[in-house]
Amino acid sequence: MDYMNEYRKWLENVKDKELADALLRMNETEIEDSFYRNLSFGTGGLRGVIGAGTNRMNVFVVAKASQGLANYVGCGNSIVIGYDSRIKSNEFAKVAASVFAANGIKVHIWRELLPVPTVSFAVRKYGAKAGVMITASHNPAKYNGYKVYGSDGCQITTEDADSILNEIEKLDIFKDLKIGDFDELVNKGLIDFIDESVFDDYISAVKSQSVLFGDEINRDVAIVYSPLNGTGLKPVTRVLSETGFSNITVVEEQKYPDGSFPTCPYPNPEIKEAMQLGLDYCRKVNADLLLATDPDADRCGIAVKSSQGDYKLLSGNEVGLLLLDYICSQRKKHDSMPKNPVFVKTIVTMDLAEKIARHYGVQTVNVLTGFKFIGEVIGNLEKQNRVKDYICGFEESYGYLTGSYVRDKDAVNAAFLICEMFAYYKTRNITLIDKLSDLFKTYGYCLNTLHSYEFAGSSGMVQMNKIMNSFRADVKVFGNHKITRIEDFSQGLNGLPKSDVIKFHTNFGSVVVRPSGTEPKIKTYISVTASDECEAREIESSVNASLSDMMK
Length: 552
What we know:
By secondary structure, the chain is of the alpha/beta class. The chain has three domains: 3-194, Alpha-D-Glucose-1,6-Bisphosphate, Chain A, domain 3, CATH 3.40.120.10; 204-443, Alpha-D-Glucose-1,6-Bisphosphate, Chain A, domain 3, CATH 3.40.120; 445-551, 2-Layer Sandwich (TATA-Binding Protein), CATH 3.30.310.50. The protein has helices at 3-13, 17-25, 28-35, 59-73, 89-102, 116-126, 158-169, 182-187, 196-207, 233-242, 272-285, 316-333, 352-359, 371-383, 411-427, 432-443, 457-474, 533-551; strands spanning 46-49, 78-83, 106-109, 130-134, 143-149, 191-193, 223-226, 248-250, 289-293, 300-305, 311-314, 342-346, 363-367, 390-395, 399-401, 445-454, 477-478, 481-488, 502-506, 509-515, 521-530. The radius of gyration is 23 Å and the shape is globular. The model has no long low-confidence stretch (mean pLDDT 94).
């Protein structure tokens, strides 16, 4: 793409004052980065920095993507739209709705900001052809995004994404778009606001995931909850309240939607800094449990009080192991395990989960990174009339789902099940830390870590490709640890789609290397099995140092 020609084209055509002023302020480096390519569209839709340009999130890029999706979906069908608390999310949602409706597609849009899973739920409820969620998930405040769902309520497949991208690339961003006035389209009945009863049905579906089966628990546990200025406040507090958890303190500074995220610049519950204010609240009110959901409420992080009285953050893997064991043990105890139960995890998720599942007679299905692949497994089970065989799925990046009512990770569901599990064990004088230690004693100690390496700008993409090629061609050892087997998923393996992912098997465990699908980063996942935590961390440190050198 000739970025200067594209820049001049925008100067001539953009009348929006905010974007026009931003264009005039750009220096040449900023112009190149904003226009050297179109913002990448894939299975995760769009995600990028808010601003002017083809490589940015703005009303023109959103409108063009919506026109391409409209051409793919076709006149006479319907689409569901949702949005979160991010800067311009409401505006982008209205732009998308106005394009779809102008193209003869019925739009069902949530009246207020709500979590990602409510879009998946509403797509299935209405029998819609597609869904769109305006969100950048857990990224910093300067980002926004455009996530697309298929008619099954699952994020779009690679094939769908390629077809939609093909339609998008046919379009001139200033000449080929049909767009109407949002309010007029509402008045004409082409855009409907989703009825509150649909939200009620979603809440009921979440509550139905309980696995107590009549077991008594003390629900008066002290909980601190932070929505991280996102969408979780209404659904999480409602579910917990309606299921008897009333001793809840909400972090006031992070209670209400605010796309600038003033107290947590990186609103990701995977990161300690985002959880810090919640931890401070826990100490003030002597809480038992901290919950935090990311802005679009599809990820949930927790901290629990240790026997020494301080608070320990649990990783996504650790929470997943605890939930898997709790759900399986309760189902076994109450004879509610399906005849052919299925648990689903991603290939970068802790392998120890497979041992737990095997112990309970549960089949483990491994899929590529991304919850959409877990959703696809649920969909395939449904086609085989086996959807009740799915008992749960999780990924290391704090995403969990225990039901088939949606096809994406659901932090509302996770928050509810975590609270139930926590209360169940606390009633029996067991802490989650104690329970986790028991799992490690039973199945072996395992440590999983994630490290990210950022490569910014146009040159960063080239560098990332070179590094991935180098891993495929040159890597034989990590420090002193030999590689025993390599799985390269770029050609497709084990029936999985082709993906730029490499998994190295070693004598200590495994290392997975892959580029992020939504950010200019390469991510490494180190999984170490050892006799104890001390040995595991020593091995992990050595392997990570070796990986860091390779990234340079």
